[in-house]
Design a protein that fits this description.
By secondary structure, this protein is α/β, with parallel strands linked by helices. The chain has a domain at 64-150: Alpha-Beta Complex (Conserved hypothetical protein from pyrococcus furiosus pfu- 392566-001, ParB domain). It contains 4 helices and 5 strands. The protein has helices at 2-33, 86-99, 120-129, 143-150, and strands spanning 65-70, 74-75, 105-110, 113-116, 133-140. The chain has a 5-stranded mixed β-sheet with strand order 1-5-3-4-2. It is globular, with a radius of gyration of 16 Å. Residues 67-146 form the ParB-like N-terminal domain. Pfam families: ParB_N. InterPro entries: ParB/Sulfiredoxin_sf, ParB_N, Sulfiredoxin. Keywords: Antioxidant, ATP-binding, Disulfide bond, Nucleotide-binding, Oxidoreductase. Belongs to the sulfiredoxin family.
């Protein structure tokens, strides 16, 4: 069931990829025009979905923000505790090459450091593709939140 669901989701992403990229590009343009800059990063290399990095969320700083983060800024504390399915990583690499990353990985920001606990296959696919950044949904967290994820 999970595998069938995965392929259904990937196919849907391929079908809607162009529309979502156009929407993301328009959102980026609107952010630039309104000069909302809650946070910025110097980003080198190409974006994982072909669009310029988002520098702030549309919610005015409340709730999660979608940004392009450099891979080396994201700490992966559970990376060595499990191994990724290499077939899934290869499929994601093909998809990212063709239509870009459609679903950002979730990242928790605690005291200025970024921690990733999900999106392991997407993260590894970006590494293997040699991409410098990855699109992330960032949520602010506390040290207690971080401890909870490390259990």
């Amino acid at each position: 069931y999970k595998r069938e669901r995965y392929f259904f989701i990937r196919e849907r992403e391929r079908e809607t990829g162009r529309k979502e990229r156009k929407t993301a590009t328009m959102a980026n343009l609107m952010l630039r025009l309104t000069s909302i800059s809650l946070r910025s990063f110097s980003v080198s290399g190409s974006s994982s979905n072909g669009s310029p990095p988002v520098i702030g969320g549309s919610s005015g700083g409340v709730g999660p923000m979608i940004v392009e983060l450099p891979l080396e800024k994201i700490r992966r504390p559970l990376m060595r505790t499990r191994s990724n399915d290499q077939n899934k990583v290869k499929e994601l690499m093909d998809s990212i090459r063709q239509i870009g990353l459609q679903v950002p990985i979730d990242v928790i920001e605690v005291d200025g450091a970024y921690y990733g606990f999900s999106g392991c296959h997407r993260y590894e696919a970006h590494q293997k593709l040699g991409l410098q950044t990855i699109r992330c949904k960032i949520r602010k967290g506390t040290k207690e939140t971080l401890r909870h994820h490390l259990r």
